[in-house]
Amino acid sequence: MTENTETKHDRGQPKSRIGFVTSNKMAKTVVVMVQRRAAHSQYGKVQTKRAKYKAHVEDHDPKKPTIFEGDKVLIVETAPMSKDKRWRVQKVLERAANV
User: Helix and strand tally (H, E) in the chain?
Assistant: First the structure.
């Protein structure tokens, strides 16, 4: 294989996360909060850590949303789409109970 040719297999698997939508007020973008539990490196106490990711949704419009706050979604890593967006919503796992 030469240096310039890359196949899908050379890049490895993209990272994926499962989280809940916290904001759907932007066009084509939702904010997803992902929680994980990890032990403290020195003391060993189990802590809940969270991170917020901006994820791309192609057919999302804030006036007629396709994804609602509280939905459980699967997001996958992708090439940068803007300053903050490096993830996209792959699928909705659960709909919010209040919708």
Answer: 0, 5
